[in-house]
């Protein structure tokens, strides 16, 4: 299935779940591609230092082997640096099962277990991982699967809107594939090793101080 077809699936109203009418308190618009929305969408999972001096935004897919290779190196930088705020943008563009994985990870957020689901799926090597294997990995990570299914039903509308927002933001940035990173004012569209992450973080900080 092509990236364009997958984008159409994500853009469709339900991505597997019925979407109800808009609510007055629904939060950011699905078409909000502003810098503020990309960095501070309240529905997007984050980690690291919430008051850090550098934002890193990562667009990824649970079926992207390059995302999986660079993930632990980025996490290492976040932990060793101590002043980075990392924003996760679930961007499932590779397979239909990627969409299911993103939905499950974001549903796990409602029980404060996004990290567990995220790392469980990122830890499965290779591309084109079937949804059943992703679900097994999430269950083994300690996520309450009954709660996850209930939260996905209850919050499917919000999850769908977040994924469509992520898609719109990736398109607005001209991103063509995963992984992709926004590091301060820099856009990086390839996987990096630890030294690469460290260097671009340093460059981004240096650039911010010269403005």
Fold and architecture overview:
This protein is α+β, with helices and mostly antiparallel strands and 211 residues long. It is 51% helix and 11% strand. A 5-stranded mixed beta sheet has the order 1-3-2-4-5. The protein is globular and about 50 Å long.
Note the overall shape.
Answer: globular
**Secondary structure tally: strands:** 5
Quaternary structure: single chain
Rg for CA atoms: 16 Å
Would you tell me the structural class of the helices and strands?
A: alpha+beta
The helix content is 40-55%
Q: Whole-Å distance between the termini?
A: 44 Å
Strand content: 5-15%
* SSE pattern: HHEEHEHHHHEEH
Q: How many individual helices?
A: 8
If you average the pLDDT, what whole number results? 88
Identify low-pLDDT runs: 12-26
Query: Strand count, sense and closure of the main sheet?
Result: 5 strands, mixed
- Strand order in space, largest sheet: 1-3-2-4-5
Break the fold down into its secondary structure elements and pairings:
Layout: H1 3-11, H2 35-40, E1 46-48, E2 54-60, H3 65-81, E3 84-90, H4 96-108, H5 114-122, H6 131-140, H7 145-172, E4 180-183, E5 186-188, H8 194-209
Parallel strand pairs: 2-3
Antiparallel strand pairs: 1-3, 2-4, 4-5
Care to give the gist of this entry?
The chain has 211 residues and is of the alpha+beta class.
Structural descriptors:
211 residues; alpha+beta; five-stranded mixed beta sheet; 8 helices; 5 strands; globular
